[in-house]
Give the backbone structure.
Amino acid sequence: MLILGGSSAVGIFAIQLAKLAGLTVIATTSTGNVALVKSFGADRVIDYRTQDFTEAVQDVDLVLDAVGSETQTRSFGVIRKDGLLLSLVSEPDEALARQYGVEIGNVHLNTTAARLGERAGLIDAGKLRFPIAREFFLDEAAAAHRLSEGGRTTGKIILRVTQLENVVLIASFLTLPTTDILDSLVL
């Protein structure tokens, strides 16, 4: 499996879910996030600033695209015939899919209480982790929101609701990848 955008929030969860399912994972990221992506279980990490993933990867069964645009277009060339391209960001090109003999699809979030409970169980068991960008107390919510608006944090922004150690609200918890394809990796 190739994950384009391996250091994105969804990329980090996808790496871990794929590893739980026994898949070999290759992920792309920038230079500054190579160690982070490796730490979440990627078998191989491609630094897209120094290496073209289309020259480094061939015949993968599945591409999960969290980048889109030209990167998505180029990814068709690394998927084996009858493989699958799933996009988190844009509709894959049907003509290119036919040309390369590849199946395509979009990943849509399908959050349910049961799926969130399953993810919480994996987190509690230490099988699913996430990086924390920064932690704020509730009275600092405006600062947390400003940080989230920047869009370039690595990890989740935590709002601590009380000062009790074990009572924490994860501001972006509902963005956990809960798609059918990712769910099938661990069920």
